[in-house]
Every structure is written in structure tokens, then in C-alpha cells.
């Protein structure tokens, strides 16, 4: 599986299980991502994404998106696109 770095986690909202991610590349709903850090290492499929509380299907480099994640993530965890 090829992986490409597409962003970094900037914060995590535990009460809703959402990671805030600053993107350096494009991302769309349905993409498979791998989040990796010191204590984080899991893959998930992007089921929904939000920019400023609005649902979006696609996001581009420079966007700050909220992604629902199944596990806790931490700031500076790296987000990879799995192809």
C-alpha cells in the first residue's frame, strides 16, 4: 500500500470524536487515511468531513477540516492518504 502525507492533526475534540486536520493535499469523502503518531496508529475511511461546521465532500491543500475518527488522535499526528 502506497501512502502519501496529506496533513497533520492540529487538535482533537474528544466529546465528538473529531480530528481537526490541516491539509497539505486534497482529500475527499471515501478516501482511506492512516493516522500515525507516537501513540497513534490506525486506518479509517473518511465518512464525513466538515469545514467550519459545514459538510463537504472534498477539501484541498490549505483547508482545515474536521474528520470523525474512531480513536483518539493527538496534535502533530501525521495523516497519510492510503492508495
Task: Describe the secondary-structure layout.
Elements: E1 3-13, E2 18-23, E3 27-28, E4 32-36, E5 41-45, E6 49-51, E7 54-56, E8 58-59, E9 64-68, E10 78-82
Antiparallel strand pairs: 1-2, 1-10, 2-9, 3-8, 4-5, 4-10, 6-7, 6-9
Short description:
The chain is mostly beta strands and 83 residues long. The chain is built from no helices and 10 strands.
Write structural notes for this entry.
By secondary structure, the protein is mostly beta strands. It is 0% helix and 57% strand. The chain has a single domain, classed as Elongation Factor Tu (Ef-tu), domain 3. The chain has strands at 3-13, 18-23, 27-28, 32-36, 41-45, 49-51, 54-56, 58-59, 64-68, 78-82. An 8-stranded antiparallel beta sheet has the order 5-4-10-1-2-9-6-7, with no helix packed on it. The protein is globular and about 30 Å long. It starts with a strand and ends with a strand. The relative contact order is 0.39.
- Work out the helix count: 0
Text of the CATH class: Mainly Beta
Give the biggest sheet. 8 strands, antiparallel
- What is the H/E string? EEEEEEEEEE
Computed CA radius of gyration, to the nearest angstrom: 11 Å
Point out poorly predicted stretches. none
**Number of domain modules:** 1
CATH architecture: Beta Barrel
What kind of oligomer do you see? single chain
Mean pLDDT: 97
- Spatial sequence of strands, sheet with the most strands: 5-4-10-1-2-9-6-7
How far apart the termini lie comes to 6 Å
| Structural class assignment | mainly beta
What is CATH's topology name?
Answer: Elongation Factor Tu (Ef-tu), domain 3
Morphology: globular
Count the beta strands.
10
Q: By CATH's scheme, which homologous superfamily applies?
A: Translation factors
Beta-strand content bin: over 45%
**Share of residues in helices:** under 10%
Amino acid at each position: 500500500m502506497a501512502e502519501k502525507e496529506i496533513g497533520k492533526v492540529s487538535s482533537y475534540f474528544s466529546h465528538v470524536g473529531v480530528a481537526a486536520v490541516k491539509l497539505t493535499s486534497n482529500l475527499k469523502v471515501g478516501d482511506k487515511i492512516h493516522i500515525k503518531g507516537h501513540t497513534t496508529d490506525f486506518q479509517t475511511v473518511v465518512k464525513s468531513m466538515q469545514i467550519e461546521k459545514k459538510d463537504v465532500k472534498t477539501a484541498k491543500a490549505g483547508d482545515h477540516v474536521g474528520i470523525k475518527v474512531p480513536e483518539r488522535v493527538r496534535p502533530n499526528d501525521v495523516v497519510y492518504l492510503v492508495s
